[in-house]
Input
Amino acid sequence: MRDTELARDFHLTPVINVAGTMTYLGASIVVPEAIAAMQRILPEFVKMEELQRYASGVIAQLTGAEAGFITASSASAISMVVAGCLTKDNLLAVEKLPDDSLTRNEVLVQAGHLVSYGAPVEQAIRLTGAKCVSIGQATQCAPYHLENSINERTVAAVYVVSHHVVDHGQIPLSLFCQIAHARGVPVIVDAASEYDLQRFLREGADIVIYSGHKFLGGPTSGIVAGRKSLIRHAWLQNRGIARGMKVGKESICGAIAALQAWQTRDHHAVRERETNILRLWAEGLQDLPGIHVSLEADPTDNPLERCKVTVYPDRARTTAWDLSQALGAGTPSVIVRDHMAEKGYFYLDPCNLHHGQEVTVLKRIIEELNAALSGDKPAITRFEDRLMQRQQAALLWPD
Ligand SMILES: *Cc1c(COP(=O)(O)O)cnc(C)c1O
Output
């Protein structure tokens, strides 16, 4: 059911996404169930409260939470939940945010969790007027850092689960919750990109946040689940700062349908398909000069692997970042997962491919490597130059 004519009408470059679920590429392939639900609701009126109440039931059933609702995104969910911790059920306080006269306004985050998912986690907290308090150091946050940072101004603690966070020296979630709860502080878990819909609540989280448009394959949306009082206080923010974070009826219905489809999805078959794709890539690339391939498990234990492609410039006559750049500049544009390119490798993520695209990916990589090998001089840019070019390019839109 793919409509390739739209891309032509809008003058869009066809994209093959082997980067993962990326906002800048339109997140993920939305599952047919969600597309159908969105189409069905669009011409209708609904009582939004009723629709969100239904969503709450579905979310509760899947996550084990008491309640939940659908937001515009995970980023807005973080802001709404933090705002709810500031205002509780005071409707006037909701309208006054951001309010710098609040005496209880501190949100604790481990320094190693203060990452960017395209924008800073910290900013989603500060948007509410709350003060984001970094605890510990990037590579080390101990129980005593958390214990001694909680005071009468503390309203919440945010815990981020992501491949972006520092992956060692942090407080494990269950202990983090134990320490926070002993002092009456709720724990908000940002699990935007995680598969497991129950684990974090089971480990003690009071609120957990997921993106609807990542592994779930829903439309752009967020899902909050957790303790009813906190959910209710977050919901009230629709009368305040969350007005500009409004989620439409179509996204709510799409997210609900994606959640329901997640329950019945044949996860085993999906994994098997991805494994076959990874094998194709590994076999097709392993003997190329200056290339090393291996399969790597997901760093936060999601049930998936990626193909790691290491590029040795002395033999390949190109670098991981030049190869990534060349693949992205082609037609179709093949976008690889290249946040580690400076280390000499990138990943191929098999989760967002339409049938047959894996073959094109392999073909394009081989083409670019051959071009680098047969070129007059090596296709090598200084990493520093690439970094500056990207930064400058960001400022030029819409030109
Ligand atoms: C993607 C992501 C976000 C942002 O999610 P959106 O739904 O796109 O706002 C937040 N936190 C983490 C850990 C993420 O991976």
Summary: The first strand starts at residue 15 and ends at 18.
